[in-house]
Amino acid sequence: MKIAIDAMGGDCGLTATIPATLAVLEAYPDITKVHLFGHETAINKALDSAERILANPLLRQRLQIRHAESQVNMADKPAKVLRERGESSMFLALRALAADEVDACVSSGNTGALIGLARHCCGTFEDVRTVAICAQLPNLNHPSYLLDVGANVDCTASQLHQFARMGCGLVSSLYPLDQRLGQKPKVRALSIGVESGKGNQAVTDAVALCADDASMDFAGLIEANQLLMDDCDVVVCDGFTGNIALKACEGTADYIRSYAQQALSENPRQSSGVEGPSERLLQAMQTARFNGAVLLGLRRTVIKSHGASDAIAFQAAIEKAIILEQGELTQKMMKQLS
Amino acid sequence: MKIAIDAMGGDCGLTATIPATLAVLEAYPDITKVHLFGHETAINKALDSAERILANPLLRQRLQIRHAESQVNMADKPAKVLRERGESSMFLALRALAADEVDACVSSGNTGALIGLARHCCGTFEDVRTVAICAQLPNLNHPSYLLDVGANVDCTASQLHQFARMGCGLVSSLYPLDQRLGQKPKVRALSIGVESGKGNQAVTDAVALCADDASMDFAGLIEANQLLMDDCDVVVCDGFTGNIALKACEGTADYIRSYAQQALSENPRQSSGVEGPSERLLQAMQTARFNGAVLLGLRRTVIKSHGASDAIAFQAAIEKAIILEQGELTQKMMKQLS
Q1: Residue A254's pLDDT is what?
Q2: Spatial contact of A38 and A71, defined as CB atoms under 8 Å apart
Q3: Rounded CA gap, A320 and B233, in Å?
């Protein structure tokens, strides 16, 4: 398997992408090549001083540096990026993906630009009007996937229904049907109550479409306070709502984590060697391991890593790409959408 | 001060409302009378066996039982409740409020019915088209208020702007201007990014209206992951978004709390006498103390307690009513909206 990395993307750039890439190469021997898109000199410099390269110089043989003169900045307007394109690391990485030189692409760069360029380079499946961003919820009981979390501010009922189908395609690539004892993916729609008719018109109409769809096990509405505790596989909503819900969960976890860290630092007895509940809580809440949102609806596998990703978070995003490619995401998705 | 209590409302009914009322009577000697609306026989029976009455029979002199033949059920359709009204405890309590027999009303009953009946009985301020539900966010750093959290699924920009003004009225009744060193309430609008133009059209247009409003210190957009960490006083959004955001925060806190409780029970050494970080965390996250959403836009003070309120949560809701009445909510609101 070959992966394209937008090495310059995100707030941390090479500081995150290079250590993450090297960690993945060590952990996954079947990754034959990682193509690093970015400024050649800067990438070489980062590799020269990387601990993993110093310890294991052979890793470098599985890396291919592909020079990009520029990079998309986080503040760039997507429309401008799409119009001008240029020779940015993000654009070249996606073009390589479209040309089948690699199997998947990972970037923590500007979300709007990534969606626009990915759509332009790779295209969407037939009948897919909009690409959706699908995030794994930090639900420790049962992995569930929320979409859309920000690509489409306003959505019609039929878009929400399509998101449900795309979510099912994702789940079936992650967990083959035989592992699930033949069960169809369980889908819910996010709303402000669980009684039928609660929510806006698009949600109400989407419920009817999903309930009639035999490719999924549609289980009705879900409220936001159940997102981390439910056992469903897919939760659909418009991108405005999904973004609010996901960030509210993340923000609350961050807030409690900083509170617990402060409590730990005030209680040195507990933090010195004794693994207390707060420490285990901090580990469990390590949101980095949920990093790696999938852009669904595209004909190729593109992973959007969080803009603020550090090396651990970016590694999780690359691993997500590997798992999805191994699960034949695009084939499963084509089957689900046809 | 006199308070009307819908004693039959909520999932817990008298089990929550009676102990909460008695606790408030003990704690606030200036509450001259609490009117308990509900089934007389049932209320008397609950009072006869209440610990606080047994210990202090004089409390009963500050209670007035007002018989209601029926009650609004949680599953009743608001339109039906409003059409038929009848002699429910909720309706009679609101009618007493409208007739000036009491100063404020608290109910943990059916939200839609409460808003409809409150509007019918008490009326709204001039120019107020819609009543908004305003909740205190569980932000431990700085009290901030989110509205609307569920009354209005779709909102125009001018409604959002009105919510901002109503939120400012609430804040000025909670914290008189002289305590705030003359600072105006700081307001933000909830969206999916902080750069100008992020979000839907209603949010973008509301930003322009709020920025032009000299009665508030409008500080731009806020993302949901900052809701519990920001220092603003008021956050405005439509009721669908606010409901999702608030419940996502609550659900995450609940989830982490149950995780911490489990961790504590597995670590008896820490839970036996040593006050560890997790225990302090649990206390701090006791969401019950944030209970008591305010219905804003009405000419009288009506508090909506969470439907699942236990006695502690319902007590917090009654205390919220007392604080707001002491702060002259309705007068401040009238001034803010004129």
Answers
A1: 79
A2: yes
A3: 39
Contact indicator for A221, A204 with CB cutoff of 8 Å: no
Please name the residues between 165 and 204 in chain A that touch chain B, using a CB distance below 8 Å: 190-192, 195, 199-200
What is the predicted ipTM? Answer: 0.88
List CB contacts (< 8 A) between A270 and chain B: 270, 276-277
Question: Any long-range contacts for A279-282 (C-beta under 8 Å, 24+ apart)?
Answer: A280/B263, A281/A257, A281/B256, A281/B259, A281/B260, A281/B263, A281/B278, A282/A257
Residues in chain B: 338
Beta-sheet pairing, A301-304 with A293-296: antiparallel
Buried b / exposed e over B37-47, threshold 16 CB at 10 Å, is: bbbeebbeebb
Contact B251 A227 (CB under 8 A): yes
Cross-chain residue pair A250–B200, CB shorter than 8 Å:
no
Domains and CATH numbers, chain B: 1-128+297-338 (3.40.718.10)
A contacts of B265 (beta carbons < 8 Å): none
Q: How far is A179 from chain B (nearest CA, A)?
A: 27
In chain B, whose CA is at the least distance from the CA of A275? B267
Question: Distance from CA of residue A309 to its chain's centroid?
Answer: 12
Average model confidence (pLDDT) across chain A: 89
Tell whether omega for the bond before A148 is within 30 degrees of 0, i.e. cis.
yes
A200-226 pLDDT tens trace: 999 999 999 999 999 999 999 999 999
Q: Flag whether pLDDT at B288 surpasses 70.
A: no
Is the Cβ–Cβ distance between B303 and B320 less than 8 Å?
yes
- In tens, the pLDDT along B172-185 reads 888 766 566 678 99
Segment 145-164 of chain A within 8 Å of chain B by CB: 150, 153-154
Q: Which residues of B touch A75 (CB under 8 A)?
A: 195
A298-332 residue pLDDT tens: 999 999 999 989 999 999 999 999 999 999 999 98
pLDDT of residue A278 exceeding 60: no
